[in-house]
Amino acid sequence: MYGTVARFRALPGKREEMLRGLKEYDSLSIDGWVVDYAFQMDGDPDEFFMVAVFKDKAAYMANADAPAQHERYLKWRALLAADPEWHDGEVVATTGGATA
C-alpha cells in the first residue's frame, strides 16, 4: 500500500466547510483508494493531519494526476490557510483491528 500524511490548517471560520469537503470523498469511487483518516488536533481545532491510503503507488499517482482530483483539490485548498504539507510513502506496517 502507498499513501500520504498531510498537515494542514483551515482558514478561520472555514473549518466546518473544509471538513464537509473531506467527507465528500466517501461518496466517490476512486480507483485504488483504500481509506482516509483525518485528525483534528486537541491543541488547535483548526489544525489537522490526514492519512490517505491507496492500494499501491501507481493508483496513488494516477489519482494525484487526475484532472477531477485537481479540481476537487483546488476547491478544498481555497478553505485552507496555506498549502498542505505532504509526506508520501509506502505503508510498511499495520497493527490492530483496523486494516487498510
Description:
A hairpin with a 6-residue loop joins β2 (33-40) and β3. Helix content is 29%, strand content 30%. The termini are close together. The protein has a 4-stranded antiparallel beta sheet with strand order 2-3-1-4. It is built from 3 helices and 4 strands, in the order βαββααβ. It has one domain: Alpha-Beta Plaits, CATH 3.30.70.100. With 100 residues, it is an alpha+beta fold.
State the order of secondary-structure elements, H for helix, E for strand. Answer: EHEEHHE
| Helix coverage percent | 25-40%
What is the helix tally?
3
Classify the fold: give the CATH topology.
Alpha-Beta Plaits
**Gyration radius, to the nearest Å?**
14 Å
Question: How would a textbook summarize the main sheet?
Answer: 4 strands, antiparallel
CATH class: Alpha Beta
Cross-sheet strand order for the largest sheet: 2-3-1-4
- Percent strand equals 25-35%
- Estimated structural class: alpha+beta
**Unreliable runs:** none
| Tally of individual domains | 1
What's the mean pLDDT score?
92
- What is the number of beta strands? 4
CATH architectural arrangement: 2-Layer Sandwich
Q: How far do the termini sit from each other?
A: 8 Å
Overall form: globular
Helix and strand topology:
Elements: E1 2-9, H1 15-23, E2 33-40, E3 47-54, H2 57-65, H3 67-77, E4 85-90
Antiparallel strand pairs: 1-3, 1-4, 2-3
